[in-house]
UniProtKB/TrEMBL annotation:
It is found in: Cell surface. Keywords: Competence, Membrane, Transmembrane, Transmembrane helix. This is Tfp pilus assembly protein FimT/FimU. It comes from the Bacteria. The keyword Transmembrane applies. Its main location: other. The chain crosses the membrane at residues 6-30.
Length: 125
């Protein structure tokens, strides 16, 4: 009686390893690129949130005219810091122009900037 064959042949094993190697060759760079894209998108969303928050806090302030800058750490991304600068200028009797800019560097060292400009009408009390 002949014993039943068990296991894989060397050719089958080498073929499986070759297919796995080809898959990994494409999968690893794609995974890295998707992670970087996710990080950049998360960073952009956080920057927009900071812009909204700063403009609203400046609008609720009684004295709009002025300028300033502050360093803010990210609440969602590790080791991520942003520089927020703002400037408010009176351009008319009751009209102010408010500019807010947020700068941040991503993991690759590329600087991302978001800048919003708005106008506020402030009626004298």
């Amino acid at each position: 009686m002949k014993q039943a064959e068990r296991g894989f042949t060397l050719v089958e094993t080498m073929t499986a390893l070759l297919v796995l190697g080809i898959f990994i060759t494409f999968a690893v760079p794609l995974h890295r690129e998707l992670n970087q894209m996710f990080y950049r998108e998360r960073m952009e969303m956080e920057m927009v949130h900071m812009l909204e928050h700063k403009i609203e806090s400046l609008a609720s302030n009684a004295t709009l005219a002025g300028a300033g800058s502050e360093q803010v750490s990210s609440q969602e991304l590790e080791r991520q810091h942003y520089q927020i600068t703002w400037r408010s200028v009176q351009i008319g009797p009751y009209l102010y122009e408010v500019q807010v800019e947020v700068n941040g560097k991503d993991r690759d060292g590329k600087i991302h900037k978001k800048r919003w400009v708005t106008h506020r009408f402030v009626r004298a009390g």
